[in-house]
Specification:
By secondary structure, the chain is α+β, with helices and mostly antiparallel strands. It has helices spanning 15-22, 25-32, 170-197; strands at 3-11, 41-48, 51-59, 74-84, 91-92, 112-113, 125-134, 139-150, 153-164.
Length: 198
């Protein structure tokens, strides 16, 4: 059974502003350097206002692994982000209004009207597929890094499942990796907050 990492950070800024910072090449280099012992290097990067794809090569420090697993395995991190358009939010005609005189309403599909013309535009979401692959070890790390609208601003979240297919010691190794990755991703969210608010 995989071990899950789940983190989130709220922002006063819009999802568009958060993704603008997140998809900046210089900022990407900074966030990948937050754990110096991993010696991370951005090997490919491409971004637009609605998408981002990047790959990072790093080393898994020996201190992250249990005794008996020697060396510093290579780890590849890949993120592929896409824009998710806001869902239309039509309003059923008369919804929330007091009843008026006249014949009783009929059953069936309600009449639907579009939002008012002066209603504020809904913000999009940005969804990033997040994968980490450790060379030569049965370790799988997969999940999502997302930015969604939240109240007047936005929220960024990281959900990552860590799985280790090793007899007997698998759960222990999962916890060890989780205990290292969780503060690393928390630091990324704090760095993002500082950059967005700067």
């Amino acid at each position: 059974m995989a071990t899950r990492i789940a983190l989130e950070r709220e922002f006063a800024a819009s999802p568009q502003r958060v993704f603008e910072v997140l998809s900046d090449r210089a900022f990407t280099t900074r966030r990948m350097a937050l754990v110096p012992e991993m010696s991370a290097e951005v090997t490919s990067f491409a971004a637009s206002p609605s998408s981002m794809e990047l790959s990072v090569e790093a080393q898994l420090p020996a201190s992250w692994m249990p005794a008996g697993v020697g060396g510093t395995p290579a780890i590849n991190r890949h993120e592929q982000w896409t824009l998710k358009a806001p869902s239309a939010q039509p309003v059923a005609a008369g919804a929330g209004s007091p009843p008026t005189s006249g014949p009783p309403p009929t059953t069936g599909t309600p009449t639907v009207s579009p939002p008012p013309a002066d209603a504020p535009a809904a913000s999009p979401s940005y969804v990033g597929d997040l994968r980490l692959v450790v060379a030569g070890l049965p370790v799988t790390c997969g999940g999502e890094f997302t930015v969604h609208p939240w109240q007047e601003g936005s929220v960024a979240s990281v959900v990552l499942d860590v799985g280790v297919d090793l007899p007997m010691v698998g759960p222990m190794v999962e916890r060890m990796i989780r205990d290292r990755l969780e503060p690393a991703f928390a630091a990324e969210l704090e760095l993002l907050a500082d950059a967005v608010e700067a």
